[in-house]
Amino acid sequence: MRKITNGLLILSLLLLAACAGESTSETKGGKKDKALKEAPGGKYYGGIFTMNDTEYFRSLFPLNIGEVVGHRIGNQIYEGLVKLSQTDLSVQPAIAEKYTVSEDGKVYTFTLRKGVMFHDDPCFEGGKGREVTIKDIKYCLDRLCVKTAENKGYEFVSDRIVGAKEYNAAASKGSAPAEGVSGIKVLDDSTIQISLVQPFASFASILSMPFGYIYPKEAMDKYGSDMREKTVGTGPFYLKNLQPNQGLVLLRNEKYWAKDEQGNQRPYLDGIRWSFISDQKGELMAFKKGNLDMTYRLPLEMIDEVLDANKKLKPDYAEFQFQETPSLSIYYYGFKNKGELFNNKKLRQAFSYAIDKQKIVDYTMKGGAVPGHYGVVPPSFKDYNNDVVQGYKYDPKKAQQLMAEAGYPNGKGFPELTLQINSGGTRNEQIAEAAQKMLTDNLNIKLQISKVPWPQHLEATETGKCEFWRYGWIADYPDPENFLNLFLSKHVPATFAENAYINSPRYVNPEFDKVMEQALATVDKAERYKLYQKADKIMIDDAPILPIYYEIDRRLVQSYVRNFDNNSMEYRDLGVVWFEPTDAFKRNKLN
Amino acid sequence: MIQFIVKKLVSGFAALLGVVVLVFFLFNVIPVDPARLTMGQRADVASVEAVRKDLGLDKPPVTRFLYYLNDLSPLSFYKDSPEAAEKYGYSKLFSVGSGNYLVMKTPYLGFSYQDRRKVSDILITALPKTILLGIIAITFASIVGIFLGVIAAIRQFSFLDNSILVTSILGISQPSYFSGIVLALIFGDLLADYTGLNYTGNLYELNDYGDEVLVLKNLILPAIALGIRPISIFVQLTRSSVLDVLSQDYVRTAKAKGLSYYVTLFKHVLRNALNPVITAISGWFASILAGSYFIEYIFNYKGLGYETIKALESFNFPVVMGSVLFTASLFILVNIFVDILYGLLDPRISLKA
């Protein structure tokens, strides 16, 4: 017994010692190092930006990044020929110094920027990163055109780049031609040319996506499939360390190519620390305590605590910066347009008029969305005029009239219908219940709600196993075409046995297809947007889907964060952000 | 004795096989396609097929089951290739024809569907954290439980005794995930400025410069939450056991020969009274490991339980299977060990098969 008590005593002493040891090492970390250094133009160097995502990333390998978290992290580490501007999502040159588009919109010519260096990494000789060459660009773009289980970008380029399909076919037989994809030509040491099958105005935005990132062949050879967590890029930060499911730290790339207007070397921040706390409330609490520099997406149940009736911050939160913008996303209900029930356009329109989207936005979404009164393109594009794409505002009278015209006067003879939603999150349920009540009250029909797991939900909607379902779409790249593309008839297979991948409502309208084809061949942006609006209007007049809302992204940022603009894709570029040494900064970062 | 051990091992093996069969077929009954889960909305037939093939899901369940058993077994058959050798890390025993070999290896548990890490790596990183949490929780529970139990016994029927008893009953009656949430809210959030504790946290965290640091304070709240139920049990056990011993003749003798009260208590009473408590403590250790599943999830403490629940949420079959198998084998081995130990310690128990 004495031995046990002694053992316990020693153990507790050890614990105490360890705790004490930890606190001293914290102070030893050097608070003075954390102070900011002033630079010309009122900017400051230093500081670690802290942020959280509620999901862990799946992969950081450029070709394999398929979800937002991997994309957000990848953006700080990697760069493509072009990248997006954090302020307005316009396409900016990055590893390419500039690019030109031929008059017919089919040939893109990129000029390589001089002096862009890869991060230092053991995969290089001597561990020092070398300069990016035109061969790297060719290597990465060729790989993009080979379909593998890891490559999530192939579908974006296979129909577009000349020779991509042929190259893939040859590569799958193990006989890829040495000169690579025929439509991707190296002209000289600093120029590369990409030829498209037909004009595609958003091609540059596509190259800004993760699978357009440039990485060295050496890393691929050394790490292979470990590239999902080993990164060698050219971006403003490099990956210092990572704990699976838990956190990662990026530190500043001293050899980054970019300088600001005052000639200051970017980035300003010393690094970024990412955590992965899985609940949104925990994230908000950590932010309020000052442990995080930003929190994205306020949990719905906490909105009343943060915002008052006028959508202004309440006193407890007044010190923070509040940023909001309509996101590039849509939340909608889909109809099985080729089904026996919903091939009836008047019926679809009746449903569309019968749901009060404004009410759903006000009560369920707490004002955090724009009601779905337009087409599929969300009201988030600066030059896109959604007002000419009027959809369906709540009008129960009209709904009942259309219901009668559709052959179901006062709901008579209407079969029992099921609305299928995917499980996960209470929001889908709350909205479905609201919609259920509105539809049953206004149209006098019977509606059930069924909840199934996400993969099963996708499978059912794509193979036409449900009539009426919830769906959503978030833009891959900032272009209205990314939304309108969902309704092209080429995505609709002949039978229900085959999956209709993105056009799961199976909407087919040759007129819509024609306008879209015309739009994609139009190089002039204003002209093109007009055609997009026309297509959007044609589509929503047919009511193949029922838009519920377009979400508004809200985030809180600490008061001392500068030059951190928000945008409708939550596209983050920490390479341009700096901290101001205010009192709040000192409180959060120096104590 | 040997016979006994062999028999125990055989039945343990049968139990493990049962676990494999059960988990495997449960995952095949769920109408969820893991390949689809790793892809987004944009997945086309060919991509999903490629992922299915990559994850080995393109074969019928029975074939996959046999492959899984082959992967699991230390003695197994493989077609020899440099990739296979690297994947499984086997050593060849002898050839069975056409490039196939009988090989010896450590059981191969596959890789996570989500991030493609090896399951064995996931388990190896997660396990020490869970064990450390368990040890700290049980140590804390033993110290506090025995201390309070002794106090309750020597002040029997006093106000102190009654309040300790009532509190301990409350302690038994609440599930650990409840106390976990309450503790996290009170000490990790509301009073965080005074306690300096985190609402959630892991054993190792990255500091601002990307170095891993040990954050022992993150053990405090989970260990307390996990220890509350055992404390209550230990209090009651200690109390009744001490009362039992106090009424025995030799204690009276000790008092009669003039020994001081505390010497009697610590040298004579406690030594005997603690035997059943120590047995209970060792028995609770296993339950603590099981209880840590909830606690780890609540506190975002990335041990075995956290990884398993996360894997269940995402239908990540290899990780769930690996962790369940691992826990099951641990329980089976501990049980065999305890059986043998009882036989060695207590001559009345004979280890007959």
CATH topology of the largest domain in chain A: the name is Dipeptide-binding Protein, domain 3
The main pleated sheet of chain B reads as: 3 strands, antiparallel
Q: In which range does the helix fraction of chain B lie?
A: 55-70%
Q: What number of structural domains do the residues of chain A give?
A: 3
Helix content of chain A: 25-40%
Low-confidence stretches of chain A: 1-11, 13-32
What is the terminal-to-terminal distance of chain A?
Answer: 45 Å
Structural class of chain A: alpha+beta
CATH architecture classification name of the largest domain in chain A? Roll
Q: Give the distance, in angstroms, between the N- and C-terminal Cα atoms of chain B.
A: 8 Å
Strand order of the largest sheet of chain B: 1-3-2
Q: How many strand units of chain B?
A: 5
How much β-strand is present in the residues of chain A? 15-25%
What kind of sheet is the major sheet of chain A?
A: 8 strands, mixed
Q: How do the SSEs of chain B run, as a string of H and E?
A: HHHHEHEEHHHHEEHHHHH
- Rounded mean pLDDT of chain B is 85
Radius of gyration of chain B: 26 Å
Any key phrases for this structure?
heterodimer; A: 591 residues; D-Maltodextrin-Binding Protein, domain 2; Dipeptide-binding Protein, domain 1; Dipeptide-binding Protein, domain 3; 3 domains; 30% helix; disordered N terminus; B: 353 residues; mainly alpha; three-stranded antiparallel beta sheet; two-stranded antiparallel ribbon; 14 helices; 5 strands; 7% strand
Short overview:
The complex is a heterodimer of chains A (591) and B (353). Chain A is of the alpha+beta class and 591 residues long.
Write a structural description.
The complex is a heterodimer of chains A (591) and B (353). Chain A starts with a helix and ends with a helix. Chain A folds into 3 domains: 1-55 and 244-322 and 558-591, Periplasmic binding protein-like II (D-Maltodextrin-Binding Protein, domain 2, 3-Layer(aba) Sandwich); 57-234, Dipeptide-binding Protein, Domain 1 (Dipeptide-binding Protein, domain 1), CATH 3.90.76.10; 329-551, Dipeptide-binding Protein, Domain 3 (Dipeptide-binding Protein, domain 3). In chain A, 46% of the residues are buried. Chain A has 591 residues and is of the alpha+beta class. Chain A has helices spanning 2-28, 68-77, 134-144, 154-157, 164-172, 203-207, 217-223, 280-288, 303-306, 345-354, 357-364, 396-405, 427-443, 454-462, 481-484, 510-520, 525-542, 583-589, and strands at residues 37-39, 43-45, 48-52, 82-84, 91-93, 96-101, 107-112, 184-188, 191-195, 237-243, 247-252, 271-275, 294-296, 321-326, 329-335, 369-371, 417-422, 447-452, 468-474, 545-557, 561-562, 578-579. In chain A, a hairpin with a 5-residue loop joins strand 6 and strand 7 (107-112). Chain B is mainly alpha-helical and 353 residues long. In chain B, 69% of the residues lie in helices and 7% in strands. Chain B is built from 14 helices and 5 strands. In chain B, strands 1-3-2 form a 3-stranded antiparallel β-sheet. In chain B, strands 4-5 form a two-stranded antiparallel ribbon. In chain B, strand 4 (204-206) and strand 5 (212-214) form a beta hairpin. Chain B starts with a helix and ends in an 8-residue tail after the last helix. The model of chain B has no long low-confidence stretch (mean pLDDT 85). Classes of the chains: A alpha+beta (591), B mainly alpha (353). Chains A and B meet through helix 1, strand 10, strand 11, helix 8 and helix 14 of A and helix 2, helix 3, helix 6, strand 4 and strand 5 of B.
